[in-house]
Amino acid sequence: MSYPKQKFGVVVFPGSNCDHDAFYVLKNIFNQDTRFLWHKDASLEGVDVVILPGGFSYGDYLRCGAIARFSPIMKEVITFARDGGIVIGICNGFQILCESGLLPGALLRNEGLTFVCKDVNLRVDNSYTRFTAECSAGEVLRIPIAHGEGNYFADDKTINMLEHNGQILFRYCESDGSITPESNPNGSINNIAGIMNEYGNIMGLMPHPERAADPVLGRIDGKKIFSSVIKSLIENDNLKNINLVERS
Amino acid sequence: MNKQEPEVNIALAIKHGLNEEEYEKILKILNRIPTYTELGIYSVMWSEHCSYKNSIAEIKKLPRTGERLLVKAGEENAGLVDIGDGLAVAFKIESHNHPSAVEPYQGAATGVGGIMRDIFTMGARPIAALNSLRFGNPSHPRTKYLMKRIVQGIGDYGNSFGVPTVAGDVYFDDCYNENPLVNAMSVGIVKHSLIAKSAAKGVGNLVMIVGSSTGRDGIHGATFASEEISNESETKRPSVQVGDPFTEKLLLEATLEAIKAEIIVGIQDMGAAGITCSTSEMSARAETGMKINLDKVPMREKAMTGYEIMLSESQERMLMVVKPENETKVKTIFQKWDLQCETIGEVTEGGNVEIFYHGLKIADVSAYSLVLGGGAPVYMRESTKPKYIDENQKFDLSIIPEPSDYNEVLLKMLGSLNLCSRRWISSQYDTMVRTNTVSTIGDAAVIRIKGTPKALAMKTDCNPRYVYLNPYRGAEIAVAECARNLVCVGAKPLAITNCLNFGNPYKPEIYWQFKETIRGIADACKHFATPVTGGNVSFYNESPDGAIYPTPVIGMIGEINDYTKTISQAFKNPGDIIILLGENKSEVGGSEYINRCFGVVKGDIPALDLDLEKRLHDLILNLNENGFLNSAHDVSDGGLAVTICESIINGHGNTSVDLGAELMLDSVKRLDFYIFSESQSMVVVSCAPDKVKFIQEKAKMSSVAFSILGKVTHNKKIIINNKISIDVQTIINTYEERMEGLFNQ
Into how many domains does chain A fold? Predict the structure, then answer.
């Protein structure tokens, strides 16, 4: 699979530890123009997509993601996102997105009170998004999780809004796609594993698609999420080109 | 000298854990009475933990050379083995038993932190962590608490630090009730050109301290680790250090960046005995000295004395030697990572470490006189064969009754804590971060090396019951089993590290166990050409109830030249033929079977023929190289029946196909002895039916016994003769839920 190159930036916070994993997948598996963005810098270097990677930014000592949101780069990320830029937060990145108010809700400690690392089944709830277009609705992806605080919580009003707007992208499920309490690894409300904002340009998810994108490691379902994003950018470019042609 | 300090005399020396003879030796070296700080320095450097004084003479008998070794054991912070492509693997295992017994969470966490620093101080990036744990009886009031907090401590540290924890081993026995074992291993990769040294070379070069600030935590940790655990140990809680994985992660990145910039002359992490150990060891290695000004050390507590600063074991610190012209460059890198970096002294001629504080010289001692291999004491202890050895070996196994209900017995075995799934533990560890984990479902973990077709396989092993019953052969078996595990994922064993956990070496019976164990490890390692690259000795693992079983944990590394050829223990296809390579001699002495079902730790342990074992390894590797094998799993604790169950269970989790197995074992006299036998040098493989002939031929050429046991089925049952027939789901439930069940009661 090869695509025209899009520009990805992977933010490196002190304590990020899945930064290299996201970088590797985008650069080596998808052959994209990928760079690291240092947390103390105030430039996004013109990237098309910002990835906030997994890890323990600033040690997650106060509350997951609570300190990272105040880093210099996050000012730029917030502006970029508010202007419609594409932002993906994985695991700790999802926590940072919630802390910075770019996504609603919060991620609490897992119900079982322990860190959990394992493969889970994820049902794609909405396939009409730039993050899931390569999946079919109801498709079950097998992708690992690795977190201690992934228990998604929001008030009823927010949950209703997310449900109503189709902002819930992934739910923990059984292998046949059914949503059960047993398939919920952390106690998230409505088995929520990943959501997007109402404009569809910001996604946060607890599972790690970058760990399921290299056949050598025995899992490839995460590739669909990255290829969805890349394709959506290419289609955007085509639209831009059409507009340009029309204008001239 | 400070007037507040206590007067130094023999009584104070004894309080510091030194004996009379050692105190006399210090007086002779210094030709005067030591200062209070100097007494502290000698007491930690000559503690068992730092000096290896009761073990080094024996350890030197281990094979420590090999053509792939890049440094000799003990020469640097960890062993280094060449793996081609200009790369080397650095790896080491270390104990953190005493701190974990008292404060399990921090004790275990800092065990992980300490071994990680040993690896990246050499310039290597850690790529995997392993741990070997021993717990007491689950019904003992502390066991569940210790398990929970130790596993959490290991997980929280490694997960945050961002290195996958991929393998290990766990045993439960009453002997660990008060004295759990926590042995942490780390594996890293380094380019040959970037291997960092730990000698303080170059008179006039600067000595810098980087990382965390220094506090009062961990003072006398090394001395504490050199005593038996007693009822007073709880009061030693302040001797346990506190870990900060976030700072360690920054320290890792900054250190590797500085090493890569080639601006570091020498570097050593600070673990046991903190500034004392790092300054004296780095000086002694280069035959230089150091002048250190403690006023420059960043401190997190007020009014610390020089004695306290020298003995602090605050974590996440490193000592570096840097040329004066590179001082600013080094500071820039550490500041980038928001870490403290201060110049605290310089390298001097003459070989003495001189310590200044508040304008006074508070210590002036010869570095050489302090260190292992230099002036530190070396003892040969008295050893006596314990009486229990012969008595236990005489145990008559024929009095073990044959079970009437084999189904019940097999389920009982699968529900043994020593055999059941370790998922409750492993799911609390991030096993995949850095996306190199090719497999964790084989007998060993397989980690690829990005940018090459290669992978490393790694595992820890030690059946402590075996070593207790027969220390020499038990130790040989620990090495053999570890190697067999690597071979069963398709890896060629390269080298080992070991962590020798024993009781009090001043007891002749304990010392005999120690000496016999060393002999066993040495013989096995010579046979497999897997030299010992380094490791750690932990004595005094005793509580008021007595000593632990001798537990020499072996950590082994192997290489796979093409990671697409990795195999696992999981059965793949219904219809595949199940073959036993090696001879089952129905040996149940010291087995989990008689332990679990009859509460007996007796009998002689299985025989081991090292030549045969080596032939078996070569055979398995050859068969896998030719693509003949669909799975391979070594037969160890629990014997053949448990081995088959594990291959089904892992196969079940790995494929959507329904799997089972049917075995026909003809002409077996005692079926229980046969299916639960732990005879050595046995591997169960599965293959497509058309490969059987080739495997049989190859086995014959290797003089390895070959027998067809049965086949992989799709009926979701395990069937053995007409004695066992159990649904796979029942097996899975028993196996998977046992350990988790402990915490849901």
Answer: 1
